[in-house]
């Protein structure tokens, strides 16, 4: 199995079904922090095979780890189109009190490729008398739509009763919402888990702090992740607290490293930074797309999951590493049996 670069920097490779994690590590007899971790060193080009539980050994006193404390919401709901077609609707991003970006999904046979198409006949009937009226396409594709939701309760309260976590075909069975929460998650809002942080446990965080490694939060509420191959990330809501901004800047002033936990953290920090990489407090929307040509200015390393073939997130990874190191990392991950998706293993890129 090999990973090959394509013209825009993304990797093309075959992901065998055996490497798709269909269950949480806890269901496989492991603790959260016992997943495998491939460590790629940008300075030497070396690649190491390790486990996440020893993350503190790869960091130094004064380093700063930045995490995304957004919590996952039960964003998948059953619906029926006006013509009677059964649907599953994924709520992606709330853009106003009643308007959401949604992804309507028609049932398809297992193993069949899902294709975007026209929207289902609106309004969509939801549980408990709720409705969703599709208004217009969202973005440049035909997968996401802007819809007006009429709910009998506030969205989070209604979803708590009628929603469930978004799951894809590789999931072995339905898993509870708790399986899709990071241990430090605080603020509900993500359609899908910011999964790079899933392996963290209180014990790992304690050992980081005891070593003198800082841990600071941002919030970025993720939308649905099932991007088409040619689809770039769309706007998401982000917040960088003033204290986090100052700690990032201080780490760099003192010659220490800033390690982002997940691509969401990179997107938030880069949005909040000026051209020199100085980060300020930020609260708003981000439509930033990070590519190798743009580069990164605020972070030195990245802890991330394993991304789909040709996924747009791979452009960001190449901006943090480089094309050759990224390709070698993915070749090593494929050959070493690393597991993909939110319940899988992780990849640490260090300077």
Key structural traits:
single chain; about 350 residues; alpha/beta; QueA-like; Thrombin, subunit H; 6-stranded antiparallel β-sheet; globular
Q: How do the strands and helices of this protein lay out in sequence?
A:
Blueprint: E1 4-5, E2 11-12, E3 36-41, E4 47-51, E5 64-68, E6 70-72, E7 76-80, E8 86-94, E9 99-105, E10 124-125, E11 131-137, E12 145-150, H1 155-162, E13 187-190, H2 202-211, E14 214-221, E15 236-240, H3 242-253, E16 258-261, H4 263-271, E17 282-286, E18 301-304, H5 313-320, H6 323-335, E19 346-350
Parallel strand pairs: 3-19, 5-14, 5-16, 6-13, 16-18
Antiparallel strand pairs: 1-2, 3-4, 7-8, 8-9, 9-12, 10-11, 11-12, 14-15, 15-17, 18-19
Detailed description of the structure:
- With 351 residues, the chain is an alpha/beta fold.
- It has 2 domains: 4-72 and 176-350, QueA-like; 76-162, Thrombin, subunit H, CATH 2.40.10.
- It has 6 helices and 19 strands.
- It has helices at 155-162, 202-211, 242-253, 263-271, 313-320, 323-335; strands at 4-5, 11-12, 36-41, 47-51, 64-68, 70-72, 76-80, 86-94, 99-105, 124-125, 131-137, 145-150, 187-190, 214-221, 236-240, 258-261, 282-286, 301-304, 346-350.
- The strands form 4 sheets. The chain has a 9-stranded mixed sheet with strand order 4-3-19-18-16-5-14-15-17. The chain has a 6-stranded antiparallel sheet with strand order 7-8-9-12-11-10, with no helix packed on it.
- A hairpin with a 5-residue loop joins β10 and β11.
- The longest helix has 13 residues, at 323-335.
- It is globular and about 60 Å long.
- It starts with a strand and ends with a strand.
């Amino acid at each position: 199995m090999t990973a090959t670069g394509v013209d825009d920097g993304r990797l093309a490779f075959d992901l065998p079904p055996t490497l798709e994690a269909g269950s949480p590590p806890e269901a496989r007899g492991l603790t959260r922090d016992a997943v495998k971790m491939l460590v790629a060193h940008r300075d030497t080009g070396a690649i190491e095979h390790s486990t996440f539980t020893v993350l503190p050994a790869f960091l130094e006193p004064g380093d700063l780890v930045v995490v995304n404390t957004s919590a996952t919401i039960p964003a998948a709901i059953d619906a029926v189109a006006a013509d009677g077609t059964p649907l599953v609707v994924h709520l992606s991003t709330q853009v106003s009190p009643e308007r959401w970006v949604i992804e309507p999904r028609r049932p398809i046979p297992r193993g069949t490729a899902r294709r975007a198409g026209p929207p289902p006949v609106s309004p969509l009937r939801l549980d408990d008398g709720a409705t969703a009226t599709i208004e217009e396409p969202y973005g440049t594709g035909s997968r996401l739509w802007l819809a007006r939701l009429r709910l009998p309760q506030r969205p989070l309260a209604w979803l708590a009763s009628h929603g469930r976590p978004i799951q894809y075909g590789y999931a072995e069975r339905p898993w509870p919402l708790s399986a899709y929460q990071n241990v430090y998650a605080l603020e509900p809002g993500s359609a899908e888990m910011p999964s790079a942080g899933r392996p963290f446990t209180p014990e790992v965080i304690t050992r980081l702090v005891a070593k003198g490694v800082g841990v600071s939060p941002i919030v970025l509420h993720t939308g649905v992740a099932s991007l088409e191959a040619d689809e770039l990330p769309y706007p998401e809501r982000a917040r960088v607290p003033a204290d986090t901004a100052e700690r990032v800047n201080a780490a760099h002033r003192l010659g220490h490293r800033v390690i982002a936990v997940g691509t969401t953290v990179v997107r938030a920090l880069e949005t909040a930074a000026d051209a020199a990489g100085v980060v300020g407090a930020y609260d708003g929307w981000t439509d930033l797309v990070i590519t190798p040509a743009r580069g990164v200015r605020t972070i030195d390393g990245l802890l991330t999951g394993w991304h789909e073939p040709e996924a747009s997130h791979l452009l960001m990874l190449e901006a943090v590493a480089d094309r050759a190191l990224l390709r070698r990392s993915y070749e090593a991950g494929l050959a070493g049996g690393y597991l993909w998706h939110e319940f899988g293993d992780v990849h640490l890129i260090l300077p």
